[in-house]
């Protein structure tokens, strides 16, 4: 009798993730099977080649693959979602999650392909549009990224995330004024959007407009005190304005949030050797943050008022 060695896919802990609940999520992949012919096989007995023998299968559910992703096992998740999509080729969520998993492993080409396949199945799949835009930006395909994010805004004009991504694409294309407007609108659509504020502040720094960078970055650091990126950018603006002591505190806050954050480590070493400008008055960051909060509220009011006008106009047609 043949001795069979069966490689079994280990079960994964189930972790809930908000994806499509309306489609069947169970598929199967062939398990690896190795067979060894028994030396006692009767002469003349029919021997079926191993390659043609029916292969035992092990079920791969959406939840199994999803659990691997949530556990941070992105390579495993990518393979599990790839197997899932073979049996459920019409489910855009499987391809979307394959794209996310591949992106997390750094395989941008595979991620782009998976997101494109999801969008072929469902052109209005907003999450695939948004995350494929990020992948396209990372791959340097900025014009294509902008075109794609414009389609997201056409689908969901009130999505602050989509508008913020549009700002990123515009900034990378050097269309800075439009990028600033996009970040401001993103903040108006979501008054807690730390990354719209951070990106706005960073763009101001890149343009040498350091004073204008302080309010959005001060507000962002209030909203997200554990973000090393925000604190580091705030430190950059303060340092360039000559507020060495406050810049040092910002870099220290960045490293307190993440001791491995290299940019803050380098910046802190740099400012440690600098001397505060005599008579320099500290910036009231709390006041600047509050000022920016009020400004965003005004932007939000204008955005809501504009939306109402558009709705009224459509209803009258």
Describe what is shown at a glance:
The protein has 14 helices and 4 strands.
Describe this structure in words.
With 317 residues, the chain is mainly α. Among the domains are: 123-214, Alpha Horseshoe (Serine Threonine Protein Phosphatase 5, Tetratricopeptide repeat), CATH 1.25.40; 224-275. Helix content is 64%, strand content 6%. The protein contains 14 helices and four strands. The chain has helices at residues 62-70, 74-87, 92-105, 108-121, 126-138, 142-155, 160-172, 176-189, 194-206, 210-223, 228-240, 244-257, 262-272, 285-316, and strands spanning 3-6, 26-30, 33-36, 57-61. The chain has a two-stranded antiparallel ribbon. It has a two-stranded antiparallel ribbon with strand order 2-4. The longest helix is centred in the C-terminal third of the chain and has 32 residues, at 285-316. The radius of gyration is 27 Å and the shape is globular. It starts with a strand and ends with a helix. The model is unreliable at 1-56 and 310-317 (pLDDT under 50).
The CATH homologous superfamily of the domain at 123-214 is named Tetratricopeptide repeat domain
Global Rg: 27 Å
Structural class by secondary-structure content = mainly alpha
Main sheet summary: 2 strands, antiparallel
Tally of helical runs: 14
Distance from first to last alpha carbon: 79 Å
Percentage of residues in DSSP E strands: 5-15%
CATH topology of the domain at 123-214: Serine Threonine Protein Phosphatase 5, Tetratricopeptide repeat
The counted number of beta strands is: 4
- The stretches of 5 or more residues where confidence is low (pLDDT under 50) are 1-56, 310-317
Which second-level CATH architecture of the domain at 123-214 applies?
A: Alpha Horseshoe
With strands numbered from the N-terminus, the spatial order across the biggest sheet is 1-3
CATH class of the domain at 123-214: Mainly Alpha
The percent range for helix content is 55-70%
What is the general shape?
Answer: globular
